[in-house]
Structures are given as C-alpha cells and as structure tokens.
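During the no-cost extension, the postdoctoral fellow (Dr. R.K.) reprocessed legacy sequence entries with the updated structure-token encoder. One reprocessed record is reproduced below for audit purposes.
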Amino acid sequence: MAHRILVVEDDATTAAYIVKGLNEEGFTVDQADNGRDGLFHAIGGDYAAIVLDRMLPGMDGLSMLGAIRAAKITTPVLVLSARAAVEDRVGGLTAGADDYLAKPFAFAELLARVRVLIRRGTTAPAVETRLVCANLEMDLLARKVRRDDRAIDLQPREFRLLEYLLRHKEQVVTRTMLLEGVWDYHFDPGTNVIDVHVSRLRKKIDEGFTPILLHTVRGAGYRLGLPN
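Re-encoded structure tokens follow.
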C-alpha cells in the first residue's frame, strides 16, 4: 500500500515539482495551496508525512503546524522555507516540525528526508514547550522565564542564549557553538559579545538564587547545570 503524503505549497511550480516527484516514487499525494485547506486535509486525512511550506496565504505554515499539534495530530512534518537562518530553523522545530529544509532544494534531498520521517513512524515526539534546569524554567510558548517562581525579564538575545544553554544543559558549549547557534555567525568577530551577554544573563538568573547554574569552564566555554 502506497504511503499518502500531504503537500501544502502555494507556489504552483514548486508544488508541481514536488508532487510529480513523489508520485514517480510511488507515493499517493494530496495537495493544498493555502494553510486553511492544508489544515483541513491534515485533520481529516491519514498521512505518513506532511510537506509544509512556511510562507502560505490565509494561514502561514507555522500557524497551521501549531494547529495540527494542538489537535494532537502527530504526523511527521517537513517544513520548507526560503528562510534558512538558525533562528528560523529553531523556530520551525520549536513549533512542532520534525525536519526543516531550506529553499532552493534538490528533490533527492527532500525525498530522502521524507523517507526518514516515514521510517521513524507516524508517532512524532511531543512538542517541547518547557525547558527546565533545577529551579529555572523557560516557557517557550509564553516566552517567559522563572526561577523559584520569580519572573526574570530577558532581552531577546538573552532569551535565545538561555534557550540554547537549556537545550544543552549539563554540556560544555564552546564559543563557536554559541556564535553559530545564537548569533548565526560562522566566524569569530573578534569581540567580547559572548562574554558580555553571558555576564548579563548570569546576573539575571543566578544572583540571589541557589544553586549557581551558569558556570564558566576555563579554556572551553560555558555549562548550564548543577555544580559539579
């Protein structure tokens, strides 16, 4: 029995390219050109995977994805987008995507990613909306941070820095990892931007609290976690 794939893409040329290729590979493909129709198909159909464009009319791709996950639909979703920055990929994955492919793409890569999603099964992992380390908690949906039930006000870059550290808690993260994962730099700008932001973040999340969670690992980087 052929796997059913839902393709939600508003660009007619791109959609035809994807649908033709998937059909030739033996998949049964349904298609929608806007988010609302895509959501209707996703809720009513039994799909092995969904290929979803991020920028759609009526309802954008991430809004559609959020509605899918809110409806407890666990179908694996591959998000397509011309926006390839790290924060865009992280935003897509945080919203509930299982994979993220930047445009333009080769069909062979899209096909390989779809097949991987199908092999993983139809049950996607629960969308992570809370990140926790000891008594420090980040709510990704509400964009709020609390420690010991006290609200902590963070600037956008500080929030992204803390989110990255929480996703790598108890691991040593290097300057290179932070430059690429938080600032989307693929080179060292030769400034103390990381040190400044880490210092500000440490004051906000550690001063007045116990235990200390944000540690400098001399000669290596930083670690968020309980003291060793």
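The domain at 130-224 is CATH 1.10.10.10 (Arc Repressor Mutant, subunit A). The helical segments are 12-24, 35-44, 61-70, 86-94, 107-119, 156-167, 175-181, 193-206. The remaining legacy entries will be reprocessed before the final report is submitted.
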